[in-house]
Amino acid sequence: MFMADIAGVRVLYTGDYSREEDCHLCAAEIPQFSLYFNSEKMAKTIRRLAEKTPEVGETVSGFLVKKAFTYQIMALDDLHVFSQLSTENISQRITIAYSGAFGVLKHRLKQIFESVESLPDEESEGPAFRVHERLTVKYESEKHISLHWRSDPISDMVSDSIIISILLILILITSYC
Q1: How many CA atoms lie less than 13 Å away from 142 in the CB half-sphere?
Q2: For residues 131, 136, 138 and 144, what is the CA-based torsion angle, rounded to 10 degrees?
């Protein structure tokens, strides 16, 4: 159903694509009506977030869950209680072919990132360093290094930039040889 303005006459078209004749009503026959919507939304805090009443202007952090036109804010730990969703930590590891010097890679990454710290050999079973306290770069062999990190958006971005840096170093090494 839609309104059409034909030669200055407003007509409501109510075609239903059936075999019956279409019905056209003139604008004078169409009753005026208005719809009002309440745009204010309210969310309840539940379980752990509801234990303490927040002050006016205080930020409440949690997950916003919409269920049957109601909104609830809950803590991550309470998500499995009120939904069929569960949370997991994902540890990622990638091994990259790298034949360059491990010290060169560490030096280049120190130029890019603020925090690049060496790890003791007992902890990492060989030369390794940690970038932004999130990602570990390990020397596996003369031809391989590996990256280890817990998956989250920031760690994934850091790992992507490290992988690109490694590939650029390899391109520079092969272009000079």
Answers
A1: 0
A2: -90
